[in-house]
Amino acid sequence: MSWRFRKSFSPLPGVRITLSPSGVSTSVGAGPFRTTIGPRGTSVTARIPGTGLSYRHTISPNSNHQSSQSHQQDDVGNHVLPGIDANELDDIKSAGSRSLTTPGLTEFKRLLESASSEHRIIVSELGKAKSEESITVGRYTSWHNGWLRRKLFPNKFEQLRVIAEESTDKRVELEEQEQLARLQTQIDIPEHVAHSYNQLIDEFSMLAHSDRIWDTIGQRATNRVVERTMATRVIDRNPVNFELGQCEIIESDWTVPHLENANGGDLYLYPAFVLYFVTADSFALLEYKDLTVTFDLSNFIEEEIIPYDAKTVGHTWAKVNKDGSPDRRFKDNYQIPIAEYGRIAIKSKTGLNEEYLISNADKAKSFYGTWRNFFQAVHSTSQRA
Any alpha helices (H) in the chain, and if so which ranges? Predict the structure, then answer.
C-alpha cells in the first residue's frame, strides 16, 4: 500500500493493559521497544530479538496509590411520588468524565482519545471517497457500455478510466487505514482473576434478564409526618437496560457487562478496568481498586405495576399514621403494595456515583456476591508478588 492519499497517517502500534501486583499498567510499542506507564512510574524496555535479553530503564518513578473498598447493608424504605418535581431532588449523578479517570489509566485514555479522533477523520473521508467512487466508476461504466462515445472520444474515455481506478484505490486505502486506526487493546489478567471475571459475566447475564432495572437519578429524604408516608426517601428513577456488549472506542476480543445510565455515561466492566462512556470525546477509565460497591435490599412503596419477578413484602397506604394505619382524614386513601428490590450503588473517590434498582432482588444479590469475589481476586494480586 503506497499511502499516497494520506501521507500523514501512521498506524497505531496497539496497547497492552496488564493487571499486575502493583496495579494496572499501560504498555505501548512495537518490535523490541515498549513504553510502560503504571503505578511504579514510566519505564522503557528494550529487547534483543532471538536472545532473550532485555533492558528496562525507569524514566520517572511514581508513588504508590492506594484506596479502600467497603460494603454495607441497611434497610431503607423508598417511594416514587406521582408528579414528582425533579428540581426538589438531590442528583444521584457522576462527576464530569474528565475528573473520573484514575492515574494508572491516564496514558491509555490519551491513546484512546487520539485513536478515536483519527478514526473519526478517516471515517468521514471514507464516506466521501465511497461517494466519489460511485460517481466516477458509474461515469466510466456508462462510457464503457456505450460504443459511440468510446470511439469518438478515446482520450476522454481513457481519462475517465484513470479517474475511476484512482477513486477505487483511494477507497481501498482508506478502508485499510480505518482498520489500522482502531487501537487494538490486549488485556492481560492473572488466571484466578479471569476465572472470577467469567463467573461475574455469567451472573450479569442472568441479572440482565430481570423484569425491570432502574437507574436512580435523584433522591431526597421525606418528612414522614407532613407527607403522611412510611417511606424514608423519595426518588426519581428511569428504566434502563443491562446487556453484554462492546464499546465502540475499544477494539478487543472481550464482550463485557454494559450498564446503561439514564443521566450520564454508560458503564462497561472490562476485566482490568471500568469504562465510563458518554461519547467518543467524553469518557473515563477507572481501576477496580478505586471503586466502592454496596448492596442492600430496598423495601419500595410501588405505585406502578409490580414486576413479575419482584417479591411483595407488605402493604401501606397513600396516607398513613405513625403506627402504619390508614389516615382516615383522607377520603380517597388507597392501599399500596411494598415490593422488595435489590439496590446496587457504585462510587469512586474521583466522583463516580451511580445507583440501580433491580426488580429481582435474588439475582441482584447473587451478582453482587460474584462482584465481591471478583474484587477480592483483583486485590489478591498484591499478595502474590
Answer: 106-145, 147-152, 154-180, 191-207, 224-227, 361-379
